[in-house]
Amino acid sequence: FHNNEDLTERLDAFDLVALRESQSHATVAAVGVNCRMVPDLAISEALDCKSRLPSVSANGFMVSDSTRPEITRQLEALASKRRWRYLPALARPVERRPSAKSRRIHQRVQLAGWLGPFAKVVLSSRYRAHCVGVATVEDYCRELAGVRGVVTGRFHTACFALGLEVP
User: Fold this and answer.
1) Is 62 exposed, middle or buried (0-12, 13-18, 19+ CB in 10 A)?
2) Average pLDDT, the chain
3) Of 149, 41, 148, 130, whose CA–CA distance to 87 is shortest?
4) Is the pTM of this model over 0.85?
5) Do the Cβ atoms of 119 and 103 come closer than 8 Å?
């Protein structure tokens, strides 16, 4: 919003232009750029995944994590108590990337692999979440699409669930 017109017109070069609110949508559409209004790109991604996923019978429930560690601990406990699948939204790193944060996550995931069941005692829930997560958004959507419902503390997991029509 409030970009110069030249910059706005260049958006037409993209395959997908998604805007989160009506003023930006109106501004971009006014210069002839094909765009969609999507409250969050996670919903768009889930809708796209849903169109590619085979129809499956919903089975069981899933619990995801939260951005707040104390809520994540409560969600992990709920999943354990109910014997529901716990699948955090944080991705499992499949490769080591150059950023310091990525290196730190990758090292802790490797450490968890070596420690086995003791990793739960040594690693914080934030890093353990990377250990049990899946590598891609498509994998996450596939897992989420196969459950009867999800309990989450994350906005983006709620968006994925909305797009996949999972309660």
Assistant:
1) buried
2) 83
3) 130
4) no
5) no
